[in-house]
Amino acid sequence: MKKIKLLLLGLFIGTAIINAQHQQHPNIILIFSDDHAYQAISAYGNNLVQTPHIDRIAKEGALLENNFVTNSICGPSRATLLTGKYSHKNGYYDNGGTPINTAQLVFPQLLQQNGYQTAWIGKMHLNALPKGFNYLNVLASAGGQGHYFNPTFVNINNDTSAYKGYVTNLITDFFFEWMEQRDPNKPFFAVIGEKATHRSWLPDLPDLGAYDAIDFPLPDDFFDNYESRPAAQQQDMTIDKTMRLKEDLKIGQIFGINRNTDLNEIRKRLKEYYPNKKFTDKELRNFARNSDYSSLDAEQAAAYQKYYGEITKKFEAQKLNGKDLAKWKFQRYLKDYYATARSMDRNIGRILSYLDSTGLSKNTVVIYASDQGFYLGEHGWFDKRFIYDQSLKTAFVIRYPGVIKPGTRIKEFVSNVDWAPTLLDIAGIKTPSEMQGASFLPILKQQTPHNWKKDIYYHYYEYPQPHHVSPHLGIRTKDYLLIRFYKGVEGWEFFDLKKDPKQLHNVYNQKEYAPIIAQLKSRLKELIIHYDDKEALDIFNTPI
Ligand code: SGN
Ligand code: CA
Fold first, then answer.
1. What is the 106 CA–ligand 2 centroid distance (Å)?
2. From which residue to which does the signal peptide run (predicted)?
3. Is residue 1 part of a domain?
4. CA 69 to CA 437: how far, in whole Å?
5. Are 302 and 350 in a shared domain?
6. Which of 296, 330, 364 lies at the terminal end of a domain, its last residue?
7. Last residue of a domain, which of 312, 330, 348?
8. Range of the structural domain that residue 270 is part of
9. ipTM of the complex
10. Which residue's CA is the nearest one to ligand 1's atom 19?
11. Of 157, 189, 192, 158, which Cα lies nearest the Cα of 174?
12. What is the distance, to the nearest Å, from the Cα of residue 336 to the centroid of all Cα atoms in its chain?
């Protein structure tokens, strides 16, 4: 009897110690999506579609209204997340295919040194596997973008495997599998890297057509003429001209065929859409090119074929052109985009329920963020890259029970160089001096340091492909935006955000702004020097 009592006491103390350790070192989950616009989230004010599970994280924790990125594109955002550094310091400037330098320090290594088990599951897109992870299962095909259906993953040993199913569901399943096999006596850190909502926006089968009844209001700058903004005139990312009917909006698309499919089979399927049209063999083979569509199995392809077949027929009957066609494309874009986001939000719900049912919710920090912002028709665009708001800002909601007061809304400026320092701070680890950001945990606790930054430095590089956005650098404050474009287009832009929140009127040449522009230029120079961006300093010092 005595022995049993002692054993129970021992167990009790053991559990208490583990709990105390976990309080000190809470588990951290970062659900990190791709191209999911903050304006697509109901917690951020979208009232046409609901994202109940992202909203739940915000409601039970904090929502950041001014969370910016330093270089609005996929790989560079992930490299900044891992290193806490700008692109010019971590060497990952664009999606050009160069592998990330794996010799440099990434914050999960510090988590590991402090007893954490670490995992990254899903989309990573860095062309090499970084250090600092105990478990990796990341999307492998299409240059790391992966496929929506039946995707291939690569693990920490560089073994690739193909799986059956829809990518977002699989990523959640892999997370659960890892959770079951991890050591429960250690705290964990996991990145759940979503492929959603990346182009070409393929929803899971139950979500096909989920928003067909909604007529989405056209942004009032949808037909922006880009007056006074030469770089905006040069870009190649409009819904009107760049977005493709077949490859993006799936009009006349044939699903589940690939290079090996018999041409007669393709011809037969096409007859349904184009009964009077004759196709050359080359054209037929082109239908088997886009791998996101060829990876569907027979059952998935049949569901997609049925849904988009109907839409194609209706589209063909309407014979749209000009502005009507652009408006129609906008509707279809948003319907696919939001349906893909819906498949993701449901999976976020699965993750939250799992944490509830395993008792982990109380000592696990849950973050939902996207790698950058995205245009949903503002300026007539899709994609990202520009320093303008919709791509510069990105969603960030965080739940930290007992530490962050539910319903907190944060207006302070933070950026993705601050993410690594913040996550380290949550784990009780000091930020190494080489990182360029600072922890915003005090802000989340509503104890903002008096000297917290009031402006953000930005530098974008990738050019000209794929969307012809001129490389630029700039500074964003609460009231102003100053930009220097330096390749393709050379020149300055300046926006008064109090009068022009949509950033439509470049007033760089208006005399009354000369004093504030001069002030911002000198601040921009300070930031360039502070972040040690040598190339930017040369650009800044070169007169135009
Ligand atoms: C692909 C897309 C682009 C997108 C980039 C980068 N084209 O190239 O539209 O900007 O990825 O996206 S697609 O026709 O292949 O879909 S990122 O999120 O990885 O940075
Ligand atoms: Ca992205």
1. 20
2. 1-20
3. no
4. 12
5. no
6. 330
7. 330
8. 238-330
9. 0.96
10. 74
11. 192
12. 17
Residue nearest to atom 18 of ligand 1 (CA): 74
Residue 145 CA to ligand 1 centre (angstroms): 8
Residue length, the chain?
A: 544
Q: Which ligand is nearest to the CA of 369?
A: 2
Sheet holding 117-122, edge to edge: 160-162, 152-155, 135-139, 117-122, 188-193, 27-33, 364-370, 396-399, 62-64, 408-410
For ligand 2, a single-atom ion, the residues with CB < 5 A are 34-35, 74, 371
Give residue 68 CA to ligand 1 midpoint distance, Å. Answer: 20
Is residue 338 situated within a structural domain?
yes
Which residue has its alpha carbon closest to ligand 1 atom 3? 466
Pocket around ligand 1: residues whose beta carbon is below 6 Å from it? Answer: 34-35, 73-74, 95, 125, 198-200, 383, 466-467
Alpha carbon of 538 to ligand 2 centroid (Å): 29
* Cβ atoms of 473 and 455 closer than 8 Å: no
What is the rounded distance in angstroms from the CA atom of residue 507 to the CA atom of residue 499? 11
- The pTM for the full model equals 0.95
The Å distance, Cα 35 to ligand 1 centre, comes to: 10
In a domain, 173, yes or no: yes
The CATH number of the domain holding residue 423 is 3.40.720.10
Residue nearest to atom 2 of ligand 1 (CA): 199
Joined together, the tokens standing for residue 278 give 């004759």
Handedness of CA 315, 316, 319, 321 (dihedral sign): positive
Q: Which ligand is nearest to the CA of 374?
A: 2
Write out the chain's pLDDT in tens, 544 residues.
556 666 566 555 555 444 444 467 999 999 999 999 999 999 999 999 999 999 999 999 999 999 999 999 999 999 999 999 999 999 999 999 999 999 999 999 999 999 999 999 999 999 999 999 999 999 998 889 999 999 999 999 999 999 999 999 999 999 999 999 999 999 999 999 999 999 999 999 999 999 999 999 999 999 999 999 999 999 999 999 999 999 999 999 999 998 888 888 888 888 877 778 888 888 888 877 766 899 999 999 999 999 999 999 999 999 999 999 999 999 999 999 999 999 999 999 999 999 999 999 999 999 999 999 999 999 999 999 999 999 999 999 999 999 999 999 999 999 999 999 999 999 999 999 999 999 999 999 999 999 999 999 999 999 999 999 999 999 999 999 999 999 999 999 999 999 999 999 999 999 999 999 999 999 999 999 999 999 999 999 999 8
Does residue 146 contact residue 140 with C-beta atoms inside 8 Å? yes
- Whether 303 and 161 map to the same domain: the answer is no
